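Progress note, sequence design subtask.
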């Protein structure tokens, strides 16, 4: 693998936690190896590894973008990541206010439903 991949994997583990990454790695197959390399290098090794903004800000942006674009499946994972990024439930709520105004109330409303359910689950989960 590349240096960017190694950096991406390090960042991915820091943000999502070893347990999540280990589960994802165990599910890799030949079919998605290139895709996994792409997201590890691009998303985690480039974007999330940048020191241009804080992890907290990046979490807020990511959740807002996922909601605005209707990519709801990834919202719970990124809500769980806020344990490590420092984005608070209030930060998430603020980001979703922007989604409501700039991308639509239904998307923000659905995202908020997912956020609330995930935060409730997190109250009883071990890290």
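Output:
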């Amino acid at each position: 693998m590349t240096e960017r991949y190694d950096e991406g994997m390090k960042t991915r583990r820091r943000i999502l936690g070893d347990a999540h990454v280990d589960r994802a790695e165990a599910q890799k197959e030949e079919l998605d190896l290139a895709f996994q390399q792409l997201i590890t290098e691009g998303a985690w090794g480039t974007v999330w590894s940048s020191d241009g903004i804080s992890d907290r800000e990046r979490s807020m942006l990511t959740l807002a973008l996922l909601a605005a674009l209707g990519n709801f499946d990834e919202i719970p994972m990124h809500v769980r990541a806020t344990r490590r990024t420092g984005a608070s439930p209030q930060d998430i709520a603020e980001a979703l206010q922007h989604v409501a105004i700039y991308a639509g109330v239904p998307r923000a409303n659905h995202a908020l439903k997912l956020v609330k359910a995930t935060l409730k689950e997190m109250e009883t989960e071990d890290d």
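The chain has two domains: 1-50, 53-126. Work on this subtask will continue into the next period as scheduled.
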